[in-house]
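Minutes, structural biology subgroup

Action item carried over from last meeting: produce the structure token record for Glu/Leu/Phe/Val dehydrogenase dimerization domain-containing protein (Splendidivirga corallicola). EB confirmed the sequence was re-checked against the source entry. Recorded below for completeness.
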Amino acid sequence: MSEVKEIESAEEISVFEEISRLGHEQVMFCHDEPTGLKAIIGIHNTVLGPSLGGTRIWNYASEEEALRDVLRLSRGMTFKNAISGLNLGGGKAVIIGDAAKIKSEALLRRFGRFVDDLGGKYITAEDVNMKTSDIEYVAMSTEHVTGLPEVMGGGGDPSPVTAYGTYMGMKAAAKKVYGSDNLENKKITVQGVGQVGTYLVERLRKEGAEVFISDISDSKLQKVAEEFGAKVVSQEDIYDMDVDIYAPCALGATLNDDTISRLKCKVVAGAANNQLADEQIHGRMLIERGITYAPDFLINAGGVMNCYAEYQGGYKREKVYQKAETIYNITLDILNKAEKEDITTQEAALKLALKRITDMGNVKLAY
Ligand SMILES: NC(=O)c1ccc[n+]([C@@H]2O[C@H](COP(=O)([O-])OP(=O)(O)OC[C@H]3O[C@@H](n4cnc5c(N)ncnc54)[C@H](O)[C@@H]3O)[C@@H](O)[C@H]2O)c1
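Output recorded by EB:
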């Protein structure tokens, strides 16, 4: 892997063309008739170590969409793990279907056997629609799994650590843009008050920020508004708010042709994966609008740091938080590097991740 390749959003996808273009090492298609399991495991790169990334259960509109998602997500994990200094490669899995209908002990245990077949080249964890209790079933079939509850020697829910790392990245971006990382009285929009968003709102409110939240779930909005004193805004209005910082913590691709021209903030720093609809175009567009973007895969790495600590054994929560705190300095370095080299912050972060992979590719690693 010598350069960073862009993801294209073409309608049709040719498996070999796409995996060779993006540099994937291996893609495994898993099928099991009795349980109805249809899954794809994407292993993007294992130069730094075994690939690690969560399993997402999603009712994809087509198999192409599922394939595209797993390729995109596993590639993202390679760069996230690399820039975070973890000895891990990038991988991800998707299980196709409506989680509410297909999820069963049998399906999850069968999926675990497919993971096991890879002999440790891919280590799984939670992602969308996969909870800690689901991971327990997967773990009955394979030891190549993280995200187990703390009572089972695992690291538990990674979301609080993800939120902490995101908060660190946000503070670093504030330091760069506003000259101080103090978020007191800063106006901040948080889009999505799910697992990560809620923990982030809690931290921001504790620091005295004025927080505006949006979600598609009224009950979540009500709960977070009442508990932390955040103000509710509509899903659409969130892009037009006169705020200092926008924190996307729901979906990807919310930084796009439509939204960027509406944003009034000076900083974007959130936990959602793949926030830039197009890495090049929208990365540049943000610069032109005078908005500093803290790369998502850098500042949302707290969760995978949690998984890595569990994978290494002897999990210690304080150590994971110490590691997540390093996101502050890395983010500042990346923002400065981007400014100096007149490149987007996303490019600067990708370059650093790629350099580590290239450098370490020349060293014989054992894992
Ligand atoms: N959980 C982690 O540790 C972790 C780690 C790294 C990255 N991420 C990323 O962070 C994001 C949030 O993760 P999570 O675990 O909190 O997920 P989650 O599913 O718990 O929360 C997402 C929230 O976004 C809301 N939402 C969906 N569409 C929305 C819309 N159009 N507008 C506003 N809100 C909307 C959902 O209702 C939900 O409350 C995801 O993109 C995820 O990939 C999470």
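Discussion: The chain has a mean pLDDT of 94.
Next step: EB to file the record with the rest of the batch.
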